[in-house]
Each structure stands twice: as structure tokens, then as C-alpha cells.
Design goal:
Layout: H1 30-46, H2 49-57, H3 62-67, H4 74-79
Length: about 80
């Protein structure tokens, strides 16, 4: 019978990666969780000049950002940082 390569090995180490709080309420309805996730990523996006520059390079316009629920001046917001 084959033996596991983990047999006899030391116990796994604890993670040193810091746990982040969840951006959504875990017991919310599906639609509410989706809205919370979209809102979270919209806020994070507007705080990242690098992400905004990437979207502009990809041809994403202010109009498209508005269509998906971001402020129409999202690219101007990113330049203020």
C-alpha cells in the first residue's frame, strides 16, 4: 500500500498572512451581497491610479464607467491622488 508523502511530517505551520475583514455581510441575500461586492470594488478602483490608468489604456471610457455604476468622472478622481 502506498504511503502518503505527508506521513510522519511535522504539523503544518500557521499562516503569517494577515486576515482581512470581509467586504460583504455574510448573511445578506444574494442580490445584496452582489451590490456590496460591486460597491467595494468600485471604491477600491477609484483609489488606485494604476488601475485607472490600466482601464484607460484598455479603452474604457468615462461613459462606460458610468454605465457600470462608477462615477462618470472616475478617471479625474484617480488623478487627484
Amino acid at each position: 500500500m502506498p504511503t502518503s508523502s505527508l506521513a510522519g511530517s511535522a504539523a503544518p505551520k500557521r499562516s503569517t498572512v494577515r486576515k482581512l475583514p470581509t467586504p460583504v455581510q455574510q448573511h445578506a441575500a444574494d442580490g445584496e451581497q452582489l451590490a456590496q461586492v460591486v460597491g467595494y470594488y468600485a471604491r477600491v478602483l477609484t483609489e488606485s491610479p494604476e488601475a485607472l490608468e490600466h482601464l484607460q489604456r484598455r479603452g474604457v471610457s468615462d461613459g462606460l464607467c458610468k454605465d457600470v455604476g462608477l462615477d462618470s468622472g472616475v478617471f479625474d478622481l484617480g488623478r487627484e491622488h
